[in-house]
Amino acid sequence: MPFYNRITSLHLDVLKEIGNIGAAHAATALSGLLNTKIDMRVPKVQMVSFDEMMEFAGGAESVVAGIYLRIEGDAKGGMFFILPVEQANHFIRKLTHDDLFDFKKENVSELGLSAMQELGNILSGSYLSALSDFTGLKIYPTPPALAVDMFGAIISFGLVEVSQIGDHVIVIDTTIYEEHMGDLETVRGHFFLLPDPDSFETIFKALGVS
Q1: Could you give the CA distance from residue 31 to residue 47 in angstroms, rounded to a whole number?
Q2: How far apart are CA 27 and CA 167, in angstroms?
């Protein structure tokens, strides 16, 4: 039986707790960058099918800003952080103080692209650090690659390896709040965790899956 068929709500709760620990570290780093108090939460972690994953981003043809990186170390795989373009624009405008920044433009500024990659570094690095601490596995990210395209095109090549063992991935919801906006969401995105076939077993055994 594939490992993902043995994952229970308890195991997903553990991943959610790890996500919230990572989010707390990421919020501290983002607060410094934006010079305002940032709160981050991971409201839900779930295992979904490839078809369901497409729905999270508004469909395969929905244009998004996607950050992709490889996970290296004891458990290898891929990780995507996906944001709707308008939410990505909002964050980069705040970070660069450029109210005209727009990923939809043909000539996107290098500063804006670098800021988006830095966002990927902070979020993914914080989550993987928490996962590493919790499991005892040595896990670290490669430098992130950024693409603005249809979600289906961005995510497709990351599914090649994981599709060898099934048709499910781990989705980690992430919501970023700014202090002065109360409970109004400023950025809401999704992590898609795609362990390589051998790493699925490694990660979940470290999390207590027999």
Answers
A1: 30
A2: 32
Above pLDDT 90, what percent of the chain? 9
**Strands (E) located in the chain:** 38-41, 45-49, 63-73, 77-84, 139-141, 145-150, 168-178, 185-195
CA dihedral 44, 47, 48, 50 (to 10 degrees): 120
Nearest by Cα to 64 from 82, 50, 39? 82
> What superfamily would CATH give domain 3-206?
CheC-like (3.40.1550.10)
Q: Report residue 114 as tokens.
A: 């670098």
Amino acid letter, residue 139: I
- Distances in Å between the alpha carbon of 128 and those of 16, 57, 108? 13, 22, 29
Q: In this structure, are residues 185 and 177 in contact, taking their beta carbons and an 8 Å threshold?
A: yes
Q: Does the predicted TM-score (pTM) go above 0.85?
A: no
pLDDT, average across residues 10-20: 86
Domain regions of the chain by residue span: 3-206
